[in-house]
């Protein structure tokens, strides 16, 4: 039982940097918004940043939108699969 607890603790601590990625609150919110937009339609990297930072979109600061988009695990050179 102690070995199982130890293995679980090690797994959680090793996975934490992947979850957090040291993004700020607004950047994490922008990541959620970006994933929502991407679930509805395909975007280019610059188009998604523009959508997130636009007054007609979510109104995030361009720096926060850029950090959020760059944190996504997406190959922007491949066409979107919609």
TrEMBL record:
It holds the Pfam family Lipoprotein_Ltp. The keyword Signal applies. Residues 1-20 form the signal peptide. Residues 27-72 form the Putative host cell surface-exposed lipoprotein Ltp-like HTH region domain. InterPro entries: Ltp-like_HTH (IPR011434), WH-like_DNA-bd_sf (IPR036388). It comes from the Bacteria. Keywords: Signal. This is Putative host cell surface-exposed lipoprotein Ltp-like HTH region domain-containing protein.
């Amino acid at each position: 039982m102690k070995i199982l607890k130890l293995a679980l603790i090690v797994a959680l601590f090793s996975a934490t940097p992947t979850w957090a990625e040291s993004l700020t609150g607004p950047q994490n919110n922008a990541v959620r918004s970006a994933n929502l937009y991407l679930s509805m339609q395909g975007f280019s990297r610059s188009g998604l940043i523009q959508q997130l930072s636009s007054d007609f979109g979510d109104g995030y600061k361009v720096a926060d939108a850029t950090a959020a988009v760059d944190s996504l695990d997406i190959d922007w050179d491949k066409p979107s699969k919609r």
